[in-house]
Amino acid sequence: MIPLTFSQLSGGDSIWLLLFFTAAIGPYIAARINRTPVSLATVISLMLVAVLQFLNALIGTTTGSDFDPVFFGALIPAWVLEPSHFHRLFFAGWLHGGAMHVLGNILVVALIGIPLEGRLGARRWLVVYILGLLGGNIAWCLTHPDSTVPALGASGACFGLLGGYMVCWPNDKVVFPLIFLIRAWPIGLIAMIRLGFEVYYVYSIDAGRMGGGNVAHLAHIGGFFLCFAVARIVARGAPSSLDDDSGDPYAMGAGNLGTVPTISEEDGHPWIGADFPLDAVSERVMKRLFAEGDEPETRLAWLEELAEQSVCPVCGSRIDVKTEGNARIFCTKHSTHIDWPKELV
């Protein structure tokens, strides 16, 4: 029996599922540890899962397992409201129908995702990517509620990146193959041409001018418009200010930081003797910040890590990093509590 839910997995099926999970998540863990771009981790993740799909189809039956990642993880709108099938909303985004399918999505993630991460930062980029994935899948379910045809792929997430980039930094120029040329095009032009084709396909299919084919065009549109609607909210506090086109989006968040003032361990930090001091993990991050924070991009990376691990020393609220001028930490609830390493008020 081919397993369709977690409860139907055999031992051999569970091993295959663990392999797919490791292939999908492993690159993100490595990116976190090595502080490398999450957009590149996504490229590697999609590639590894695609390779596993090929291996599963090639040798799956010889392992004594009936596990089929498409039957188990692809989006099936008629089933997705059942709790045992919720996982399909996410799993489907890592599965593809063939080499050209996955390569096309990887191309978009690499060419659009990398400069967008330079603007957004890693955490916000991942939020936009997941929202695009969910927006595409939800749009497909709403427009095809009774369908039992498997739908899969990261295209909704890719169009989400386009929609999010367009609404936040429409004047950026990104290297992309368009109109038979590979050159730097305005992201707004890239997004509108790609979206225009999708709208045309949907209209033509609805009017009976062309067959439906096997491409979920409405999922692409859903991913685009959800991220277009919410990306500016997600981008608040990002390394690049909204609509700013003065920096280099390929600088991975450090293009607008300029020089940074010197900080040293001897000068101390705002958490010393505070009501909400650093814990052991945050202290280790702080030591790395003092030791390695002389370069703008390195300081930004460690400040972001510190913001994740600690809270405002005055009120215990969540803290974040802003990069207008020099990268520094601020309290998200009371802006007067902390503005460091610039100053503490």
Would you summarize the structure shown here?
The protein is mainly alpha-helical and 345 residues long.
Task: Report on this structure.
With 345 residues, the protein is mostly helical. The protein has 2 domains: 6-234, Rhomboid-like (Rhomboid-like fold); 257-340, no CATH class. It is 52% helix and 6% strand. The chain has 11 helices and 5 strands. Strands 3-4-5 form a 3-stranded antiparallel β-sheet, with helices on one face. A two-stranded antiparallel ribbon has the order 1-2. Helix 7 (155-168) packs across helix 9. It is globular and about 65 Å long.
How many structural units, i.e. domains?
A: 2
What would CATH call the architecture of the largest domain? Up-down Bundle
Spatial strand arrangement across the major sheet: 3-4-5
Summarize the biggest pleated sheet.
Answer: 3 strands, antiparallel
- Compute the CA-based radius of gyration: 22 Å
Q: CATH top level of the largest domain?
A: Mainly Alpha
Give the percentage of residues in beta strands.
5-15%
Helix content: 40-55%
Identify the CATH homologous superfamily of the largest domain.
Rhomboid-like
Mean pLDDT: 88
List keywords for this structure.
5 strands; globular; 2 domains; single chain; 345 residues; Rhomboid-like fold; mainly alpha; two-stranded antiparallel sheet
